[in-house]
Amino acid sequence: MSPFLREVEIPWREHIVVMIRVDRDPGGLVTAVAPVVVRGGGYWVGWPGIHLENPDELIPESDPADRTPTAGLRSDKVRAVHVDPKVFDSYYNGCCNNTFWPLFHSMPDRASFSAEHWKNYYTVNKEFAQKTLSALAEVSKDQSPEAGPPLVWVHDYHLMLASNWIRQGAEEMNLRCKLGFFLHIPFPPWDIFRLFPWSDEVLQGMLGCDMVGFHIQDYCLNFVDCCQRRLGCRVDRKNMLVEHGGRTVRVRPLPIGIPFDRFVLLAQSAPKVISSSTKIVLGVDRLDYTKGLVHRLKAFEMLLEKHPEHLEKVTLLQICVPSRTDVKEYQELKEEMDQLVGRINGRFTTPNWSPIRYIYGCVSQDELAAFYRDAAVALVTPLRDGMNLVAKEFVACQINEPPGVLIVSPFAGAGEMMHEALICNPYEIGAAAEVIHRALTMPEDERQLRMNYLRRREKINDVNFWMRSFLKAMGSLIYEDGEETLP
Length: 487
Ligand code: GDG
What we know:
Layout: E1 17-21, H1 28-39, E2 43-46, E3 78-80, H2 85-104, H3 115-142, E4 151-155, H4 162-172, E5 178-182, H5 190-193, H6 199-206, E6 211-214, H7 217-231, E7 234-236, E8 241-244, E9 247-253, H8 260-269, E10 279-286, H9 293-306, E11 314-321, H10 328-348, E12 356-360, H11 365-374, E13 377-380, H12 389-397, E14 405-408, H13 413-417, E15 422-423, H14 429-440, H15 444-460, H16 463-473
Parallel strand pairs: 1-2, 1-4, 2-3, 4-5, 5-6, 6-9, 10-11, 10-13, 11-12, 13-14, 14-15
Antiparallel strand pairs: 7-8, 8-9
The structure holds GDP-alpha-D-glucose.
């Protein structure tokens, strides 16, 4: 490999962060990231979650309708991107949720490929890029010439084209910046990725960044492979570098963590919500076909069939958060789940016990922490999942002794690193039933040992660690190296 492919440390010490993200749901990620943006005097460019009559009007932070995921940021530091509702629908439900979501989860038969949706994806990404450039221009006015270039951090499959336009625009406007991208879902292998008709443009968009981050090494390798095969880029797999347009782009596995300590506190204070005397096997998921819910119910049914000793002693508590409810496939999945739950309950229910408790809805974080804490087993068995935070939140909340058991799919990013969990292939229904049986009958000392290791790892590699790792991999640290905690 020629020395052209070289990793260069970027000596930053002062930073302004401009985050860009589409999502409407404030979560752990926003809680961790927003303070860094605030400290860096940065901006948040995002979709406000609602369509405004007057797009120039910024929603006041106290407005209950404001679902902008930027709690704590001053409103003059928020740049809301407004898009015509029809264009947004085609972009968000069409291209993001009906094309990239299934394709990147290696389910191409569920993906639709539409030139119209792609055109609108293009339009919305351009809009985000333009808003970001105006934020960058603001930042640059206030910055001292000695300061390092501002950092722009772009999130997820909704914005895979934006970075390249930000780079080009910044060059034209003579603005300095460094660009990082993080993908929260898997990056698929070449044989799947190549099905997307405009795959070259997606790669070029992402390669507009200085660094591209994924949860795990496999996704990094898939990305590097696609850059080489689709664009003919020179790549260095050992050091995870891709050469494109005369620049070298770093590719890094940066597994996301959770706000571990916050979940521990929640688990310590949450009142008991499970009154049943049976052992609880817990599932918590958005109602999504990637989460393997139908397979999971069938595995539980098989458990009851093959191991009748669990009858009246074990209950599956499945929480399904409604998701993308206006999409036909999701409505069909809901229908299938309703029927399956009804059939299994009809088959096994006795006067004092039903095998499945099914909550179709959202529970509060307190209740969720109590469920995590009091469950004997957590079933995290997606068919494919970028990481899966539920697995991590469960172990954080396992403060009771002896603890419960985590079962995780090898097709989730979490399955790659939570080695002490029981690994379960969700496609193998019979084997999955046996894994649940093993978890329910595991000796206490083994449960304790496994959980200790799992909790230790998640406590260290929490969401703040992830943030720091990202900034470090970008060649930057907002805080001095010795400083351990972010606010
Ligand atoms: C994407 C990737 C990756 C769930 N039910 C309730 C509730 N939740 C919260 C959980 C958890 C979150 O939703 C779900 O996170 P996941 O990671 O499981 O899944 P995605 O939403 O698909 O997220 C995924 C993630 O991005 C981060 O990079 O791990 O692979 O697909 O935090 O706690 N929260 C409340 N009530 C519920 O009923 N309050």
